[in-house]
Automatic annotation (TrEMBL):
Belongs to the NAD(P)-dependent epimerase/dehydratase family. It catalyses: UDP-alpha-D-glucose = UDP-alpha-D-galactose. InterPro entries: Epimerase_deHydtase, NAD(P)-bd_dom_sf, Sc_DH/Rdtase_CS, UDP_G4E. This is UDP-glucose 4-epimerase. Keywords: Carbohydrate metabolism, Isomerase, NAD. The keyword Metal-binding does not apply. Pathway: Carbohydrate metabolism; galactose metabolism. Signal peptide: none annotated. Its cofactor is NAD(+). PROSITE patterns: ADH_SHORT.
Length: 327
């Protein structure tokens, strides 16, 4: 049993990781500033409210709990926003992680599981992305996450810590028991927006680009169920606790789905029409991002279990119909 500091534990992926940690017998201590998280999502362990950029708040949480390892989710994560306000991304994602790593060093904690992103690869040269592909991000969000990856490597080399870096593809779905789920303000992600359109909470969904070099002309993404991501995090943690060395692993399903396929599947799952219109491309969107590696399975025994598109949309729809967290 480990006590795990979970930064961003009130957020989408972080809260699902907390549930999985508790189910595996660990204690998740949530550290969150509630800039985007939800109080209703903190239900699997103690809460320490605070900001990564506040060293005293970090010192307090490390002093109050015997932390064995850290899972670091807290970050800003919108590609488009990162282009508009890059310094907010460098501050939160890079300076925030720097502050966290300094606190870990002060308190003698060396193990960390870090949420990185397939956006660190930039425009893929081939049809699938593997961990050995060059990392050349094309937006400040991806740049900030790649910088943290490098900071982790330098820190481990100097101080002997170990880390698991997970490069997520598109997180989707919700807790199958409807305790927690995806909720962003404003919402920008495809599946929740499609479900909002189905439910009449927005007039329609706009398809961003229909002239991509893909079979139906719309962008292809690799959607991965959030509970599969959470399972990978527990495995990554246990790998580190067992003395395993540092790893960097993609977390995707290996299957790509177009925007049109998502819309059609949402119509099938809900039994309702999806009001949709075609629109121009969204700047910065690569045509196709799909994970092409079994490295997470080889190293951690991890395999996606709920990441077929229909199950992800069913779980997201069941959560959507609960009405979500209270503001
Ligand atoms: N997308 C879309 N309409 C929307 C939101 C997203 O067509 O209103 C497309 C977007 O261009 C991308 C895919 O859906 O190809 C997934 O976008 P999302 O923002 O969910 O995730 P991202 O891939 O940017 O991390």
């Amino acid at each position: 049993m480990a006590t795990v500091l979970v930064t961003g534990g009130a957020g989408y992926v972080g809260s699902h990781a907390c549930k999985a940690l508790k189910a595996a017998g660990h204690v998740p201590v949530v550290f969150d500033n509630f800039s985007t998280g939800w109080r209703g999502a903190v239900r699997y362990g103690p809460l320490a409210e605070g900001d990564l950029l506040d060293p005293a708040a970090l010192d307090r949480v490390f002093a109050a709990h015997a932390i064995d390892a850290v899972m670091h989710f807290a970050a800003l994560s919108y590609v488009g926003e990162s282009v508009r306000v890059p310094l907010a991304y460098w501050r939160n994602n890079l300076a925030g992680t720097l502050s966290l790593l300094e606190a870990m060093t002060r308190h003698g904690v060396g193990r960390i599981v870090f949420s990185s992103t397939c956006a660190t690869y930039g425009e893929p040269a081939g049809t699938v992305l593997t961990e050995t592909d060059a990392q050349a991000p094309i937006n400040p969000y991806g740049q900030s996450k790649l910088a943290v990856e490098r900071m982790l490597a330098d820190t481990a080399a100097a101080h002997g810590g170990s880390h698991v870096i997970f490069r997520y593809f598109n997180a989707a779905g919700a807790d199958p028991y409807r305790e927690i789920g995806e909720q962003h303000v404003p919402e920008t992600h495809l599946i929740p927006l499609v479900l909002d359109a189905v439910a009449g909470k927005r007039a329609r969904i706009t398809v961003f680009g229909t002239d991509y070099p893909t079979p139906d002309g719309t962008c292809i993404r690799d959607y991965i169920h959030v509970t599969d991501l959470a399972d990978a995090h527990v495995r990554g943690l246990e790998h580190l606790l067992a003395g395993g060395g540092s790893l960097a692993l993609n977390l995707g399903s290996g299957s790509g789905h177009s925007v049109r396929a998502v819309i059609e599947t949402a119509a099938a799952v809900t039994g309702l029409p999806v009001p949709a219109e075609d629109g121009p491309r969204r700047p910065g969107d690569p045509a196709r991002l799909v994970s092409g590696s079994g490295l997470a399975e080889a190293r951690l025994g991890w395999r996606p279990r709920r990441s077929d598109l229909r199950t992800m949309i069913e779980d997201a729809w069941a959560w959507h119909r609960t009405g979500g967290f209270e503001a």
